């Protein structure tokens, strides 16, 4: 699927977490939507962003869609949040010498388009003062 097609799928599946509809990320976990997976275990999946904003741009996503944003995740399951961060660190170690930016968008006004908590791992010649996601 090309970037625009995948972006279109993402836009069409943006649903509030109060919905019973699976998020685009849940569909990736279920292998209903293709993605370039770079890491996976029983709790999280990590895959390349379809519209990268940095030389390294990977999303780390909990396999549960129970949490819409990082605040909800931190309050309900801090161990899972720590696991997301540890996974981001491993990816950055492998792909960027351990240096990275970790971004969680929370809410539409902050740029969140999929309301299934996820972290953006950004790396590779990022300059101070730039917002890469």
Short note summarizing the structure:
The chain has 133 residues and is an alpha+beta fold. It has 4 helices and 5 strands. Strands 1-2-3-5-4 form a 5-stranded antiparallel beta sheet, covered by helices on one side.
Number of domains: 1
User: End-to-end span in angstroms?
Assistant: 21 Å
The low-pLDDT segments are 1-18
Mean pLDDT: 86
CATH fold-level name: HIT family, subunit A
The proportion of residues in beta strands is: 15-25%
Describe the largest sheet. Answer: 5 strands, antiparallel
Reading side by side through the largest sheet, how are the strands ordered?
A: 1-2-3-5-4
Instruction: Count helical runs.
Output: 4
Helical/strand content category: alpha+beta
Quick one: how many beta strands? 5
CATH homologous superfamily? HIT-like
Helix content: 25-40%
Please give the oligomerization state of what you see: single chain
Shape by Cα distribution:
globular
Task: Give helix and strand order, one letter per element, not per position.
Answer: HHEEEHHEE
Radius of gyration: 14 Å
What's the CATH class, please? Alpha Beta
CATH second-level architecture = 2-Layer Sandwich
């Amino acid at each position: 699927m090309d970037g625009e097609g995948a972006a279109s799928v993402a836009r069409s599946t943006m649903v509030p977490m109060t919905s019973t509809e699976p998020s685009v990320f849940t569909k990736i976990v279920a292998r209903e939507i293709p993605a370039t997976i770079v890491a996976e275990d029983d709790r999280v999946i990590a895959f390349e962003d379809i519209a990268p904003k940095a030389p390294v741009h990977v999303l780390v996503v909990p396999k549960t869609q129970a949490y819409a944003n990082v605040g909800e995740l931190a309050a309900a399951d801090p161990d899972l949040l720590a696991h997301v961060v540890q996974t981001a660190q491993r990816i950055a170690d492998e792909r960027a010498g351990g240096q990275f930016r970790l971004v969680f968008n929370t809410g539409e006004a902050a740029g969140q388009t999929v309301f299934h908590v996820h972290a953006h791992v950004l790396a590779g010649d990022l300059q101070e003062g730039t917002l890469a996601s």
